[in-house]
Amino acid sequence: MADEDSTQQRRNTKGRQRNRGRSGRPRQYSAKAPSQRQRATDPARLTAFQILQAVTHEDAYANLVLPTRIRRNKLDRQDAGFATELTYGTLRSLGTYDAILARCVDRSLKKLDRPVLDALRLGTHQLLNMRVPAHAALDTTVALVRDQIGTGPSGFVNAVLRKVSQRTLEEWLEELAPGDSDQDLAIRYAHPPWILRAVKQSLVTNGRNVEDFRSVLEANNSAPELNLIALPGIGDLEPVLEYGAEASPLAPDAAVYSGGDAGRIPGVADGTVRVQDIGSQLTARALVGARDVTAGEAWLDMAAGPGGKAAVLAALAQAHGATLQANDVSEHRTKLVTQALRVVNEDVWTTSVADGTALAADPANAQRFDRILLDAPCTGLGALRRRPESRWRRTPQDLATLTQLQSQLLDAALAMLKPGGLLAYVTCSPHIAETTLQVNDLLKRQPDVTLLDSASALQQVAHQDDDGSVLARESITAGDTDANTAQLWPDLHRTDAMFFALLTR
């Protein structure tokens, strides 16, 4: 009877249980009666949890699996937007959130079950970086854990997130990263120290102030707009603009959109309009626009998968009377290329599956192509806005393998280039080992190769105004000579950090 009376005394007239008072504070009632507490997670948060699991467990890329999961879970536009913000925001700030959670957990984060850690990360993002009331972030995260992991860890997750909620994000950063050391800055801006140092080095190499690294890192942490291109001579940009997109100030036939699902945009489903970063669009266009095209030219996209730049090149080849061979080492990615090229006349393009060096070893390809695009495999550090998980997945050790491959592919490309032909070397990275140093090493080992005015080639295909190109020369190159490379920046150009070098032999 006493136990029953005691239990009754811990609830008010509405059935809400009293929290035990601590440190002399009066006892308080919980926000909800047990019967009212959320028991199952909502579809938007479930989707974000599933994507985080795919990224951390299966090395998936969020930008590839999120659209499919949104459709499978039948999210409406509002829930899809919430799931997208929660997923990408959590992935971008993973390092920051782990540093905070490490202060709130009484064991190493490595000892936590990965699903529990991912749920804690999602809850932390809602508490510190979204317009979600604290009680809702706590309640829904605990419900997610109870529904997807089990009742056992739910109390632990609740306790940890309550500790997280006791400070704002800025208060946590002031405690954990008060200084200007690389380690402090890495926590504050959610970039591993080696990437932070690489950005600083690239800024100096490309003629920018080293202090601009903060604006670059902040741009990497911002949600990117959706970039679109109406394929030249094939797609129609007008319906895209009527749908709500805005014409790009930087590139022709291009638009930016921030309204959500790209699949509903006119032209996207049939492939005449494509989702593609405007920096990528410009590098493909620059290879064609750098010099007049002679009818009958043969072009090669050497590493074409998944087909974005190949689609632009094929459309331009159709307009200029050229042909394109789109090659990739992966059969799966080559199928994606074929899908991307389906809107271009079939007599304009072919596909092939081969390693780039093996392609060059075929005597039939010796000095065969007038223009070659080598969009080389790289660390992807220039696309951290769109692929935030790359910053946590890549390591400095990856550079040794990738730079060796880039060097081999450059040599192979030059073996297939006609004398006087044009080779565009492109990477989605600002790291100097993959960009300027790679080009400099090539020029040393192949003295018959010449670096051209890459900046002018990019400027020429960008939009023009009364004063010339809207792409300011000083913003993309440190070289004032006719031999230079070009680097785009997310903070200056609202594009991925694409590198472009135009070469001839």
In short:
The chain is built from 22 helices and 16 strands. It has helices at residues 2-9, 43-58, 62-72, 77-92, 94-104, 114-129, 134-148, 154-164, 169-176, 182-189, 193-205, 213-220, 238-243, 278-289, 308-320, 331-340, 356-361, 390-393, 396-416, 436-445, 454-461, 490-493, and strands spanning 18-19, 28-29, 226-230, 246-247, 254-257, 273-275, 298-301, 323-328, 349-353, 369-375, 417-427, 450-451, 464-465, 468-469, 486-487, 499-504. Residues 11-25 have a biased composition (Basic residues).
Comma- or semicolon-separated keywords:
alpha/beta; N-utilizing Substance Protein B Homolog, Chain A; Rossmann fold; 2 domains; eight-stranded mixed beta sheet; four-stranded antiparallel beta sheet; 16 strands; MeTrfase_RsmB-F_NOP2_cat; transferase
Description:
It holds the Pfam family NusB. Belongs to the class I-like SAM-binding methyltransferase superfamily. RsmB/NOP family. Its EC number is 2.1.1.176. This protein is of the alpha/beta class and 505 residues long. The chain folds into two domains: 43-170, Orthogonal Bundle (N-utilizing Substance Protein B Homolog, Chain A); 277-504, Rossmann fold (3-Layer(aba) Sandwich). It is built from 22 helices and 16 strands. The strands form four sheets. Strands 7, 8, 9, 10, 11, 12, 15 and 16 form an eight-stranded mixed sheet that branches. Strand 4 and strand 5 form a beta hairpin.
Radius of gyration: 26 Å
Number of domains: 2
> What is the level 1 CATH name of the largest domain?
Alpha Beta
Low-confidence runs of at least 5 consecutive residues: 1-37
Strand content: 5-15%
The helix count comes to 22
Structure class: alpha/beta
* C-alpha geometry: globular
* Separation, N- and C-terminal Cα atoms: 95 Å
- Residue share in helices? 40-55%
**Count of extended strands:** 16
- Could you state the CATH homologous superfamily of the largest domain? Vaccinia Virus protein VP39
In CATH, the architecture of the largest domain is 3-Layer(aba) Sandwich
Mean pLDDT: 92
CATH topology of the largest domain: Rossmann fold
- Could you describe the largest sheet, including whether it forms a barrel? 8 strands, mixed
GO molecular function, one term: methyltransferase activity
Enzyme class: transferase
Organism: Enteractinococcus fodinae
Family: Belongs to the class I-like SAM-binding methyltransferase superfamily. RsmB/NOP family.
